[in-house]
Structure formats: structure tokens, C-alpha cells
Amino acid sequence: MVTQEDNVIISEEPTTPATNGVETTLADEESKTINGNAPGVNGDSPHDSEQSGPTEADQVAALQAELQSAQAKADDLLDKLQRTVAEAQNSRRRQERQLAEELDRASARIIRRLLPVVDDFNLAFQNVPGELDNSTGGWVDGFRQIQKKLGALLEDEGVTPIAAGGEFDPNRHEAVTSEPHETVASGHIIDTLRTGYEHKGRVLRPSLVRVAL
Hints:
Helices cover 53% and strands 17% of the residues. The chain contains four helices and eight strands; from the N terminus they run ββααααββββββ. β6 and β7 (202-205) form a beta hairpin. 4% of the residues are buried.
């Protein structure tokens, strides 16, 4: 706008606000943002590839390593458990065997102390008089029944008499005398003076015998 006052020409033009440059800059930035040109918007930073997580192959490898480690621990625990069970079973069998042996030894000691009673019964019935009256005969028969019961008890406990006669066996016989004999072969038993007994295959006491030369 141009005015003329007193021959002085004054030109009036609109002034540009001081913020005009700032607005222009902001507008440019907004344009860049809209067009996707702002830095970091598209994830094109050079550090993005370095900060990415592990790949699927890495994860599978890590899981396989963990599985192998867990399997190794499980195998180790199973081996220890099997060893513990085996040791417990062996210990139980050993204790049962020791207990059975102790019971057998205790039974053998008691039975060995009963054998002289058996010998007395046998000796008594070997010397029974030939002629007995009715009362005496009944009394003897009663003792024979006692002898049978005692023999049955010993048999139930696994006690068996050593057979008389046959070839001399130093493990089962004890020679009292050795003498020549006309009908018995050398090294064989002539007579048994005291019966020997075995308990479950073990000799409780040997038989006392006479042996032919």
C-alpha cells in the first residue's frame, strides 16, 4: 500500500512474523514424517540386525542340549536306584541265610544233647529179658512207644541215623578197632558199636565201628 503525505511516499508492506521460519521447519519435519523419511521409522537402523533375538535353530539346539543333560541325570539316578535295590536284596538274602544257619546250629546243639537219651533207649531195648509177664510186657511196650515218638521228632527235624555196615568212611565213621575178618572185606565195617547221626546232611556225630583189615 502506497500513500502520499506531504510529498513523502511511504510504502507499507506486511511484515513477516518472526515465527515464520519455525513454522516452515516444523512443516518440513511433518512432511518427512508423513512420507516415512524420519529416521528410525522403518527400522533401518544399522544396529537392528545385531539386537535381534536367537534364531529357531539356536533355540532347537539349546532345547536338545537341555534334554540330553536331563536324560543323563535321569540315567544316573536310575543306575543309583538299581544299585541300591540290588544291595538291599543281597543284604536281605544274606541276613536270611545267616539266620537259617544260626537256627540250624542251635537245633544241632539241642539234638546232639538228646542223642545219649536215644542211645539209652536203644541199649535198654537190646537187653529186654526174653520172658515178660503181662504187666511187665505192657510197661515195656509203653516205653517202646516213647522211643518211637522220640525217633519221629528227630526225623521231623531232619535227623537221620548213619547206615550201619558198608565201606568205612572217615567222615562218617570212627574206628574203635581194626581187625582181620574172614567174611568182611578189608576196609569195611564189621560191627557198629554206637549209631551215628546226620542233621540235614551234616554229621552230628560219627558212628563208632569195628573195621576189617
